[in-house]
Structure formats: structure tokens, C-alpha cells
Write a structure and sequence with these properties.
single chain; 4 helices; 73% helix
């Protein structure tokens, strides 16, 4: 699992790792990501770790914040792509 590879580099204990794994699984389900090879799963894992460093320990809260952050990132990147497309003249 992507998050385990990232967590291996940390000094977190087994209980903290278990909670982050739970948050990661919840976030993947919430984002409907089933392909663990999808690059977005690594983005989710990194965001889970980042959110947890803010002092939140509840997997449900971590995953909810992660899903919101990912959704905002996707929305922002799509809108900037859309602006690029509509401002370019057709050739």
C-alpha cells in the first residue's frame, strides 16, 4: 500500500500507523479510487500524512479533510486547464 511505503520513513508508532492506514482507506473509498497504482493514491497518502501532522488523530476527520483538499486541488487544476483551452484560438 502506498501509505505504508511513505510511513516506513517516519518514526510513528504502530497505533499511529494503524490510524493513518484507516484514514487512507476511508479517503480512497470516499474518492472511489480502487486502483492502488493510480498516481492519485500517492497524493492521497501524502495529504493524509500532512493532515495528521496538524494534530488530528481521528481517521474519519483526517480522511474528510483529505478528500476536501484533494477535491479542491482537482477542481483548481481542471478550471485552469479549462481557462487555457478556452483562451487559446482554434487553428
Amino acid at each position: 500500500m502506498t501509505i505504508n511505503r511513505l510511513l516506513a520513513r517516519t518514526s510513528l508508532g504502530p497505533e499511529e500507523i494503524r490510524l493513518l492506514n484507516e484514514a487512507y482507506k476511508r479517503a480512497l473509498r470516499g474518492l472511489h479510487l480502487v486502483d492502488r497504482n493510480d498516481p492519485l493514491t500517492e497524493m492521497v497518502a501524502k495529504k493524509i500524512i500532512e493532515v495528521s501532522q496538524g494534530g488530528i488523530n481521528d481517521p474519519a476527520q483526517i480522511s474528510q479533510r483529505d478528500i476536501r483538499a484533494i477535491a479542491l486541488s482537482i477542481s483548481a487544476s481542471r478550471s485552469s486547464c479549462f481557462r487555457f483551452i478556452i483562451t487559446r484560438p482554434f487553428v
